[in-house]
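TASK: fixed-backbone design
INPUT:
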């Protein structure tokens, strides 16, 4: 484990920058005692869980109410006063102080968008002070073996991420058998371009959703899955759960009608019917993972799905858990899923993100590290997924700068550390 090294921050300041959807988010620059300058930026989600940490927005006329001047002032004011002028022994100590300063659940006063950017900058600072690469420092904090992940490329968008009739939010391809990160990225890009050609030929357009995936005018998830199979094969690859697999994020909050009722492509289903719908898809397509198959407030649905599908496909909780260790432990106790999505800005700090990964590991649950729909060029999650060794990442399509920044960081790590294994944990 990397030895703990104290951190001195001599200056901390923030500014508003645009995320990938053209809305402001918070970027933080920390200046260390040795003069090093470390930068971090907060992402933002469009599809958010009810229990996520809370962003601070201005709610004024600028940017349709989504300005971040208040959050920036919070960093430049009381957060900077807290963080600078003292020596911090650990990221846990600094993050705990941020929580105490906020004094509200979910960072609703300071803003999770302010706090997570400060915490990520501090994590980079601790790694720098220790003379370690960020992913290695993370592995040291978590006591994990580093691993290059299987990337899950969101190549078809629907739901809250696209203007089309698809109720399911994400259709991903995962090069499970790629062998190396470089080859996985190659496969992802080849399938993405093959899919572009198929979509243009059939629909005359290849418009994009928030995460860089295509958003053709379709509504039936089966049509989307057929498009993926066609593109995988057209790119010269083999579909299969152990080859180029498919992963789904239905994001069921978006098509939940309430009281355990859901609507997909005009068809209304109850919990049992939706579970049967997923079972049918899994039987006919090489699907390895289903995320948020039920709404966060539908425990009967989650239990029904688990009873039918656990062991046949990876079941992932996102809005259900919001990277909260307590919610993860509760889900594990009920047996809702065997995997957890990890998003640092859902919970607020790097330390709490580490705690969520630990909670999942203790419960025997897998983890998948994830970006958000409103992203920046920040690559923290690439180092996080390698350092934590969880073996799975989703960061959107293999296109658009804010998405490929993460994939390019992974291949950079692989070049520098060729002995690191690739694949699912």
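OUTPUT:
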């Amino acid at each position: 484990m990397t030895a703990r090294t104290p951190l001195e921050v001599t200056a901390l300041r923030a500014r508003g920058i645009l995320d990938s959807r053209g809305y402001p988010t918070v970027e933080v620059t920390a200046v260390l005692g040795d003069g090093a300058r470390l930068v971090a930026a907060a992402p933002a989600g469009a599809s958010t869980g009810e229990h996520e940490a809370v962003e601070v927005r201005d709610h004024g006329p600028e940017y349709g109410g989504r300005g971040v001047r208040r959050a920036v002032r919070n960093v430049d004011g009381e957060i900077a006063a807290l963080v600078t002028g003292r020596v911090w022994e650990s990221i846990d100590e600094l993050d705990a102080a941020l929580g105490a300063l906020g004094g509200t659940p979910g960072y609703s006063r300071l803003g999770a968008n302010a706090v997570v950017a400060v915490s990520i900058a501090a994590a980079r600072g601790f790694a720098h002070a220790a003379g370690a690469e960020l992913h290695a420092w993370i592995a040291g904090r978590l006591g994990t073996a580093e691993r290059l992940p299987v990337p899950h490329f969101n190549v078809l968008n629907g739901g809250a991420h696209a203007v089309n009739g698809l109720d399911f939010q994400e259709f991903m391809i995962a090069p499970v058998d790629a062998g190396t990160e470089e080859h996985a990225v190659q496969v992802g890009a080849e399938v993405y371009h093959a899919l572009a050609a198929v979509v243009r030929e059939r629909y005359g357009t290849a418009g994009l959703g928030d995460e860089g995936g295509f958003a053709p005018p379709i509504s039936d998830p089966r049509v989307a899955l057929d498009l993926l199979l066609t593109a995988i094969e057209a790119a010269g690859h083999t579909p299969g759960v152990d080859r180029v697999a498919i992963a789904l994020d239905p994001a069921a909050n978006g098509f939940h009608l309430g009281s355990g009722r859901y609507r997909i492509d005009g068809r209304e289903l109850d919990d049992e019917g939706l579970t049967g719908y997923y079972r049918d898809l899994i039987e006919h397509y090489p699907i390895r993972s289903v995320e948020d198959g039920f709404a966060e407030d539908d425990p009967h649905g989650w239990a029904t799905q688990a009873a039918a599908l656990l062991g046949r496909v990876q079941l992932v909780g996102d809005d259900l858990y919001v990277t909260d260790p307590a919610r993860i432990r509760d889900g594990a106790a009920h047996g809702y899923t065997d995997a957890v999505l990890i998003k640092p800005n859902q919970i607020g700090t790097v330390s709490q993100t580490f705690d969520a990964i630990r909670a999942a590991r203790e419960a025997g649950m897998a983890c998948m590290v994830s970006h958000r729909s409103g992203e920046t060029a920040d690559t923290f999650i690439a180092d996080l997924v390698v350092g934590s060794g969880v073996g799975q990442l989703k960061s959107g399509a293999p296109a658009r700068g804010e998405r490929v920044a993460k994939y390019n960081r992974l291949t950079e790590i692989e070049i520098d550390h060729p002995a690191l294994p690739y694949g699912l944990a």
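COMMENT: The longest strand covers residues 7-18.
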